[in-house]
Inverse folding.
């Protein structure tokens, strides 16, 4: 016990260590982290970050790592209060004084209301990632990416950087927020959005953070194509999930879920909306990290959910062949991606670790809206992507893909208020025809206009006088 306590005490405040490199998932080539890279310079494959000295962490037993991470939560060190609580697994080469912390991470995990559980078909938990600073899960990846930029400025002599991303809303908000924290004379922020396909609330966020916002006709895939070309040919830092440094931060979701469940992952199911596939990639990679270190005993099952209007991974799991699809309008705006950039990583992770633990279901636009509205009517604050995930879980339960009664965590990736306009369209039955949504009266709500009279209001409410 004394040796364990010494090991815990020695590691509570982490120091820079490890040897991080870019590694190509296709050819295996490795490249130093002295520049911004997104694809392999040799073969064009996607990159991930790899700690060449990861095995040194295996010298510490898994139960000891659990105690280290649990005790760190009691510390008052700002740099360790967010995703860098898991410093050794996120970005071990970054000194703590380069970490950018804006309040991200450690979002609550709330048990679903009993009535909602009955509606879905099983009890489950919702992890509210919409309670991050820019009110979406994207802050996890930005905390990692912008901390790396800060490290490059402070320690590697980086003079100027332009951070750029394509977005359906959440990525742009997170990127603009975190970049705005860095010195204005060194950092600029630019976002590309598909014109007319981002809610007013989401558009207001990067504008409020001072970013240059460029709207172009088309969908997210069109924006992504342009920023990829810019990253390939110009000196910019791409902040989409194609950047493997983004993925590092998003792995913290897995670490937190494990910690919040006392590291008991046997029989666990994690439900994730797919979108650009960066988040599901990070979540799988995160659980693999924990499993390799003996921190958890078993990898969870991953249930991915897609809208039927953007369903390339659903078709891949059905046919064994991956083909990009042309998307149609979806209320789950982050789902409107017909060619997820991180698909090759998903395919490799499924082949290596999740072959019998990875399922994908598709849901309709009406099911997505009903998932959000029913959840929020029962005491929750989920977005349309969260509604998509809840609807997907309901379908997976009804079809027997996922057993009832297990331990299930649903990822609600953003905040309900970002998508209030879709709720309002539902209540007013004013969806444009291209969404194809038929509303249900029992899910609608609207304000009642009454005269300023207690008697009239009591009569409307059916109240009886006392005595």
């Amino acid at each position: 016990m004394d040796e364990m306590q010494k090991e815990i005490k020695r590691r509570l405040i982490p120091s820079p260590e490890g040897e991080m490199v870019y590694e190509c998932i296709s050819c295996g080539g490795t490249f130093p982290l002295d520049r911004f890279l997104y694809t392999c310079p040799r073969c064009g494959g996607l990159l991930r970050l790899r700690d060449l000295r990861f095995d040194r962490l295996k010298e510490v037993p898994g139960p000891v790592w659990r105690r280290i991470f649990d005790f760190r939560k009691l510390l008052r060190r700002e740099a360790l209060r967010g995703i860098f609580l898991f410093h050794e697994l996120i970005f071990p080469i970054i000194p703590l004084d380069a970490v950018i912390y804006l309040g991200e991470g450690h979002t609550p995990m709330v048990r679903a209301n009993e009535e909602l559980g009955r509606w879905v078909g099983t009890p489950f938990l919702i992890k509210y990632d919409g309670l991050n600073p820019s009110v979406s899960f994207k802050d996890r990846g930005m905390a990692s990416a912008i901390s790396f930029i800060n490290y490059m400025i402070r320690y590697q002599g980086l003079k100027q950087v332009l951070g750029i991303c394509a977005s359906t809303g959440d990525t742009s908000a997170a990127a603009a927020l975190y970049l705005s924290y860095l010195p204005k004379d060194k950092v600029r922020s630019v976002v590309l959005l598909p014109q007319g396909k981002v809610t007013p609330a989401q558009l207001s966020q990067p504008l409020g953070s001072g970013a240059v916002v460029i709207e172009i006709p088309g969908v997210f895939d069109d924006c992504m194509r342009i920023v990829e070309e810019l990253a390939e040919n110009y000196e910019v830092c791409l902040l989409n999930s194609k950047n493997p440094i983004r993925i590092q931060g998003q792995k913290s979701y897995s670490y937190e879920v494990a910690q919040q469940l006392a590291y008991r992952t046997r029989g666990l199911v994690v439900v994730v909306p797919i979108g650009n596939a960066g988040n599901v990639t990070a979540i799988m990679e995160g659980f693999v990290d924990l499993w390799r270190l003996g921190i958890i005993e078993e990898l969870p099952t991953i249930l991915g959910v897609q809208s039927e209007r953007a369903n390339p991974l659903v078709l891949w799991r059905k046919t064994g062949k991956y083909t990009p699809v042309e998307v149609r309008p979806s209320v789950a705006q982050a789902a409107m991606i017909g060619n997820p950039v991180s698909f090759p990583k998903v395919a490799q992770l499924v082949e290596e670790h999740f072959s019998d633990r990875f399922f994908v279901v598709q849901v309709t636009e009406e099911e997505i809206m009903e998932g959000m509205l029913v959840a929020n009517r029962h005491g929750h604050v989920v977005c349309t992507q969260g509604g998509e995930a809840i609807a997907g879980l309901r379908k997976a339960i009804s079809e027997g893909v996922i057993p009832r009664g297990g331990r299930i965590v649903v990822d609600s990736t953003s905040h309900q208020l970002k998508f209030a306009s879709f709720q309002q369209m539902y209540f007013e039955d004013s969806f444009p025809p291209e969404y194809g949504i038929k509303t249900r009266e029992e899910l609608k709500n609207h304000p009642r206009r009454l005269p300023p009279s207690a008697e009239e209001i009591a009569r409307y409410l059916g109240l009886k006088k006392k005595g």
About this structure: The mean pLDDT is 94. The radius of gyration is 23 Å. The longest helix spans residues 138-155. The CA atoms of residues 104 and 145 lie 13 Å apart.
